[in-house]
TrEMBL record:
This is Metalloendopeptidase. It holds the Pfam family CUB. It comes from Cherax quadricarinatus (Australian red claw crayfish). The active site is at E172. Keywords: Disulfide bond, EGF-like domain, Hydrolase, Metal-binding, Metalloprotease, Protease, Signal, Zinc. Its cofactor is Zn(2+). Binds 1 zinc ion per subunit.
Amino acid sequence: MKPIYSWLCVMVVTLCAQPTSAFVKRGLSIPSAVSPVETMRDFMETNPEEVEGKTLYQSDMLLSEEQWQSVRERKAMADLVYRWPNGGDGYPIVPYVFDGDKVDREACVSGMDHWMKHTCIKFAPTTNTNQPHLRFMYGPGCYSYVGRILYFKGQEVSIGNGCNHLGIVVHEVGHAIGFAHEHSRPDRDEFVHINNENIIPSQVRNFEKRAKSRINNFNIIYDLSSIMHYSDKSFSINRKPTISTLDPLMQGVIGQRDGLSHRDKLLANKMYNCINKWLAKCHLKTDPCRNEGYLGASCKCVCPPGTSGTYCQVKTGSYYTDKISACSERITRPGIITSPNFPNNYHAGVKCVKLIVAPKCFTPRLTFTSFKLYGKSNYCDGKSCCYFDNLEIRTKNPFSGDIFCGTEIAAGRSFTSTTNTMILNFQTLTNFYKGWSAEVTFHQIPTCRR
């Protein structure tokens, strides 16, 4: 089958041509009105499991033998050894070269520039290849070694087919400077739940936690919005979530590939001692910034979301307030709820959570009046599933429910929770259909005493 490269951009009637790499790799075609960026499968899922005989750890990380031994024996590594050293100006420097003409140099430079804009780390082209350096190449996927590998005279960073998006390059460069995946942190269970039953069996290893002795988080809080976090459906066998946030309204936050989060920047700047360097430059002895803020290169505080003021001293909201979708909400009263833009077509890229909470001794019931989404496709390892658009309804398990698409829910069909909460998780990759509407009602539990 010849690859199909045509698609209809979701922008004013503009037609373009561009490869949708993840589907082309499999000889699959996609709906013509689907945005290519949104429909590409997570790059980690399309990566090979091995590269030149070397296994990719957690799908996109190459490890040195010492690092593999640390993983096998769950022992601590000499963390400082894997950090890039300071250059002549006292700031960390990462030399790099481009290997071949096929790699997207502009995308690589943009990714490195993004890191340089927000940290004190410098990336510099080099002609001296007899030293540790990054070698950007067009390989069979998106992957990198983790940190500086001393005995490598050129460690590969592969920016292959479909990898030349800013967020993906930033993610891989993050590995190259020493970042691991956020979901592998030892404290991850305090923030997310791993749904092992929804993971492709051969990929369960990608969800392993790292031992406390093997990781230094510099006392930075777990970040659902980190660019290093897996998406919620990474390696899903059925399009149900493999990772669920303990706070359901945060479900759409994880897996973003837009750019560095505040805590990503903070971690890099602590890891490479940037803040202390800026304090010295600004003639300050201590960092005056509060609430996870930090002194930046301009001698001003870099404040996290949810804070304001010269020193980030004013709390204005949650760290995640501006990252939660506008259509996500907590529902505590009976009434009609709908998909975004109903009765008009929903948009591509929707990530919408409805957390329905009934009073004590009541249970929520959801009765649909309309339901039409894009139907099933054979994109779950060749099996039929609700790949493009789907509504997940959780009535029993707070972390995973039943998935619906197409016209699978008839008007009048009801769903009743077994507790006083129900969770709806609506995600879309197309903009073909009107979506759904339903009535929320609360029903008393006869055996419950208030």
